[in-house]
């Protein structure tokens, strides 16, 4: 990934530091009795940690690169496909429902953008949409659009 990976890691680190600054203004509480600043602070610390790890992984890869920062046509095509998939997902979410739209969205990203094998596309898309549905729809009782499947 090289230079774009370094820029991504630095952006995430800046976001983590901003989140740390803002979360520090809220009361933290204790582990047994958390206050409003507890989870934002913990998440900001995790984000900072993982962005530093990403930065450490990406820095050695930038030595041999020569201006490939903007990528080629294939990179921009993949970015365009991902943005198009996000727009389609947003438009179809209410109409066809959570399960089907999420399955199709993940399947499209894995097959068209990342070129994964068909069996892996179906397994990952199915498990992702089912796991998130079980977590949010059933466990947390969040209303998700049923769509044409009525689930």
What's the gist of this structure?
Helices cover 69% and strands 0% of the residues.
- Broad structural category: mainly alpha
Give the biggest beta sheet: none
> Low-confidence segments, ≥5 residues, pLDDT <50?
65-69
| Quaternary structure classification | single chain
Average pLDDT, rounded to a whole number, is: 82
Overall morphology: flat
Number of domains: 2
SSE string: HHHHH
Tell me what portion of residues adopts beta-strand conformation.
Answer: under 5%
Compute the number of helices.
5
Question: Could you give the distance between the termini?
Answer: 40 Å
Query: In percent, how helical is the residue content?
Result: 55-70%
Q: What's the β-strand tally?
A: 0
Radius of gyration: 20 Å
Note the topology.
Blueprint: H1 3-23, H2 38-58, H3 73-96, H4 98-113, H5 118-139
Descriptive report:
This protein is mainly alpha-helical and 151 residues long. It has two domains: 3-62; 73-149, no CATH class. It is 69% helix and 0% strand. The chain contains five helices and no strands. It has helices at residues 3-23, 38-58, 73-96, 98-113, 118-139. The termini are far apart. Mean pLDDT is 82; it is low at 65-69.
Structure keywords:
151 residues, 2 domains, single chain, 0% strand, 5 helices, 69% helix, mainly alpha, flat
